Amino acid sequence: MQSWFEQLMCNLSETRQEKEIYAHIATAAQDLGFEYCAFGLQLPYPLTCKRVVLLNNYPQVWQENYQKKNYVRQDPIVLQGRKSTSPFLWKDSMFAKSPEMWEEAQGYGLRQGWSQSSIDGSGAASLLTLARSHEKISPLELKANESHMRWLASIAHLSLSSAYQSGLRAQLEPNLTERELEVLRWSADGKSAALIADILTISKNTVDFHIKNAVQKLQTSNKTAAVARAVMMGLLF
What is the pLDDT of residue 26? Predict the structure, then answer.
């Protein structure tokens, strides 16, 4: 018989679809005793308007009210997740500055919760929340299950951020040539066009040509922006 961990990993290995991945995460959360599971992901690009993904199985009315009242700007769970990647339990004191939101959330069954944020080297950041309408999360339960909960936060971040970033890269696929990538790598290391020309034993005009093409394909306005976008998209690894 497969363990909880093995079953989840098996399920995740069989899909690359974001909503299916989330469904498996939510099922794992239910196995840990939580009715609700919410996952928020902020992708690292575009830099000026980062894409945010929200997935949850909260009551529909609560989701609508949350968006309508723009609670995300005052949500202490989100604010705490931005400050630290340490896991935390919901407490009444957290909602001292947003009592209306807390009262409304509890009215829809979101009374007990645990959250943990994650961030990776690409700059993608996420927050996993496990919540329920009954039973306080006791120290004994935390001792027994928090390692699973923390692992779930990590695997949710890894699997969903990878899926969404792969999809976004595909949408923005610049089709850079190997020489264009090579020139961008040296540019990222601070080398001038003249130095890159010497290193690659090509002319400076050729280097400028490759840089110009890369800038156009990456839909940026200059070399610096092109290098930044290429790095954020994981193209220069």
Answer: 96
Q: Which of 169, 164, 144, 153 is nearest to 116 (CA)?
A: 153
Distance of CA 46 to the CA centre of its chain: 13
Query: CB atoms < 10 A from the CB of 72, how many?
Result: 14
Among the candidates 171, 187, 209, a domain finishes at 171
Please give the pLDDT value at position 6: 79
All residue ranges of the chain with pLDDT < 50 are 1
Q: Residue 1: what pLDDT?
A: 43
Torsion over CA: 140, 126, 82, 52 (sign): negative
Long-range contacts of 104-110 (CB under 8 A, 24+ apart): 104/62, 104/65, 105/62, 108/58, 108/59, 108/61, 108/62, 109/35, 109/36, 109/59, 109/133, 110/36, 110/58, 110/62
Q: Are residues 60 and 114 in the same domain?
A: yes
Query: pLDDT tens-digit profile of 182-200?
Result: 999 999 999 999 999 999 9
Name the nearest CA neighbour of 105 among 119, 116, 93, 95.
95
Burial of 7 (0-12, 13-18, 19+ CB in 10 A): middle
Q: Which domain holds residue 17?
A: 4-171
CATH code of residue 8: 3.30.450.80
Q: Is residue 47 part of a domain?
A: yes
Is the pTM higher than 0.85? The answer reads no
pLDDT at 203: 95
Question: Which of 171, 201, 222 corresponds to the end of one domain?
Answer: 171
* Total number of domains in the chain: 2
